[in-house]
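Field reference: sequence -> structure
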Amino acid sequence: MPALTLSGISNAYASMRYPVINPSNRKCSTIPIFSLNNQYSRNFHLSWLGFFVAFLSWFAFAPLIPDAIKTDLKLTSEEVGNSNIVSLCATLVVRVISGPLIDRYGPRKVMAGLLIIGAIPSGLAGTISTAQGLYIVRFFIGILGATFVSCQAWNTAFFDKNVVGTANALGGGWGNAGGGFTFIIMIALFNQLLADGMSPHVAWRVAFAIVPVPILLSVAAAILIFGTDHPAGKWSDRFQAVATTLPPSDDQTSNSENIKTKSGDNIETGDEKNIEVTVTAVTTTNLVSELDTAVNNPLSLNTAYQIVMNPLTWLPSLAYMTTFGYELAIDVNLATVLYTLFKSPTFGQTKAGYIAGIYGLLNVFFRPLGGYFGDLIYVKFGVPGKKYLTIACGVAQGLLSLGLGFYIDKHSHPSLEVIIVIFVILAVFNEVANGANFSLVPHCNPNSNGFMTGIVGAMGNLGGIFFAIIFRFQPYPLGRAFQIAGVIALGVNLLLCIIRVPQF
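Structure field:
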């Protein structure tokens, strides 16, 4: 037994250290996160990092707006709510646009372009002096939210069907954790600037200049320098990757299980030497799927029409609208709700922001867990298993949101500890649902994965706008918005059960 256990640990470590390549499509059937010596590892880490740093500007207003920015700009609560909605509107539009751009030019170039463009309004945040100026800057900063589409499409291009759910969920989860880290970073920096003698009027503006702009530009440069477009090389060469046999090299050694090679062959780019790469047919699951030969095709009007009219398109899209849309609304409103409920000399903007940041930080673990569960279920139950996992988590989210809303409204002095426990459990199901969803997306219209990912991502933002409107126009009693959002999540996810999916 000990030997078996050690062998299992060794195999698990190897799968996180070395890429195992499917020769039929050159995609990786492991997720080598503990390496940077191959293009699969580098692209994975660049994909989530690009999405992560987008939050440093996209969500930078949320932790400071309940008090510092609201007071400095003399904003009403309605204007704060309007600015939250405006920031999501740009992301909705750009996510739809970025999908076809990815299918044509590849996710790497689109990701870098979004970060560079988004850095411009981020640098102008310090010039805001009115509510209208806040709306304009937050609208254009919202462009950065579209990096999610590039993140997911990039991982789908490089990882095979047996791990694509986990890869997408890890990328999305670690990237989404940027929302939680942004709360911590911006509050800590703002407080430090105040301690250094700056006024609140100056401190929040300087915080924007110090954090988002240089980081956005640096990561964009890293993506362009160290990233690659496709396992085949350039994005224009992607069609060559399907059903091609990798040529053997002189230093290959083989056994009954696999072939171990050096990375000097055409799987890798960048002239790495002496890096172990295993070339093997994927044997974890001998399942025949359309994903095996799918390649992103440039979008045409006819293809777009077929995708939009396909019910399979709307299964993950509507589910994501209720789950990620809910998460976005919680991310931008939870600190304000907590601040309103518990405001006191010992509970201010800083404590509310830190507690609200927990919701986003949980993505580090629970969104990847959703993708992992999706891949695990796929082996036995196929795509229907991924579908029902996504729906079940969405239903649980709806029930817990209802419970949180009722608890807040039924208690004149609700307990902070109870609220934290409820929203943490709620976050677990919410984020597992998001991860499971993007283990399902690659099976839906796989030859237009960029466009499909853009639609699903945009629907997530549409949900964010929808739920943000609920919080905007139903501010009191404070629990009512949670109740309405819970009913919507319940109803939509249960209706999605009727949409049929392919077996594999």
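Note: The first helix runs from residue 2 to 15.
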